Amino acid sequence: MKRVVLYLLLVLMANAAFSEPFKVVYHINEREKMGMLLASVDELLQTDPDADIKVVVHGSAILKLINSSSYNRQIKNLMSKGVAVGGCNNSILKNSLPKDSLIKGVGLLEDGGVRELLLLQQQGYLYIKI
After folding, report:
1. What secondary structure does DSSP assign to 66-89, as a single string?
2. What are the start-end ranges of the E strands in 9-112?
3. 78 has which bridge partners?
4. 107 Cβ contact list (under 8 Å, min separation 6)
5. Which band of pLDDT confidence, cut at 50, 70 and 90, is reported for residue 114?
6. 88: which strand partners?
7. 103, 80 in Cβ contact below 8 A?
């Protein structure tokens, strides 16, 4: 009887673990891959609308987070679905971008994108490099 109860508890715990929404951090540092990133995030949202998704942008990809970017509308659309997008402060400085040129709603990662990636992975976010 104890084995049956233990088995049922394990099954229930496993079920609860797998029913949790995914916690995912996407990492992009190449501007040429922004379309691929947006498609991947959108695809995950279609299969798991409750996923906790964060996007960390640095390197040359930071240029795709400015107001005049051709991806402006798509990025705003994902943020409206709860996706948190953060831009690396170091990349902003290296590219001589004014901080107010970022798309409204994009978070400024004051301590840098790499540090943010490390912190999010410590918090249990699954890492996806685009």
Report:
1. BTT-TTHHHHHHHHHTT-EEEEEH
2. 23-28, 52-57, 84-88, 107-109
3. none
4. 84, 85, 86, 87
5. very high
6. 109
7. no
Q: What DSSP character marks residue 101?
A: G
Distance CA(50)–CA(40), nearest Å, equals 15
Q: Pseudo-torsion of CA 106, 112, 40, 97, nearest 10°?
A: 50
Name the residue among 120, 111, 69, 71 with its Cα closest to residue 87: 111
**pLDDT tens figures, 55-80:** 999 999 999 999 999 999 999 999 99
What lies within 8 Å, CB to CB, of 70 at 6+ separation is none
